Amino acid sequence: MTTPDPDGLLAEQLLRLTRRVYRIQKHHLAERDLGITPAQSRLLRTLSHFSAPPRMADLAEYLEVVPRAVTTLVDALEASDKVRRVPDPANRRVIRIEITDDGRKALRELHGARRAAAGEILAPLTGEQRAVLRGLLDTLVDGAPGGEHEGHGAGHSH
Predict the structure, then answer these.
(1) Are 85 and 75 in contact (CB under 8 A)?
(2) What are the Cα distances from residue 96, in Å, to 17, 59, 90, 136, 147?
C-alpha cells in the first residue's frame, strides 16, 4: 500500500486547473473571433504594462522567453495590424513595439474574454471562497522567501 502524496496530488490539481483555464480562455477567444492566439494575447497585454513602447529585448525579458519567440509573435500581430514597429526617437537603429488602435480594441475584447473565462471557472465558489483563493494565489504568485524565482522580474507587475 502506498502512502498518499498530498503535494503530488496538489501539483496534479494545479496542472489540471491550468489546462482548464487555458482551454476555457481559448474558447472565449475563439467566440470573439479575434484571430489571436493565447500567446499573442499575452504579448498584447504585456505591451499595455509599459509606459512607453518597449524594445523586443524588453518584451522577451518580461515574458521570460527567447527573443526569437517575441519576433514571431510581433510578426503575426503586425500582420493583423495590432502592433507596429517604430524607430526609437533617440536612436533610430533601435526598434520599439507600439500597440495600434486595432490592438487596443483587441485588448478590450481580450479583457472581456478573460473575465468571462474567470467567471465560468470561479462560478462554483462563494465570495468568501474567492477571497481565500485570491490570498492563496497572491502568496503562490509572489513566491515564498528563498524561492527559486525570488526577485526575478523585479520592477514588473504582471
Answers:
(1) no
(2) 35, 10, 11, 37, 33
Which phi and psi angles does 96 have, rounded to 5°?
A: -115, 155
Q: How far is CA 74 from CA 6, 46, 112, 118, 136, in A?
A: 41, 12, 22, 26, 34
The predicted-structure confidence for 22-60, as pLDDT tens digits, reads as follows 888 888 878 887 888 878 989 999 999 999 999 999 999
132 CB-side CA count, 13 A: 5
The helix (run of H) or strand (run of E) holding residue 5 is none
Question: Which residue matches cell numbers 499575452?
Answer: 42
Helices (H), 35-158: 38-49, 56-63, 67-79, 101-122, 127-142
Whole-angstrom Cα distance, residue 99 to residue 85? 9
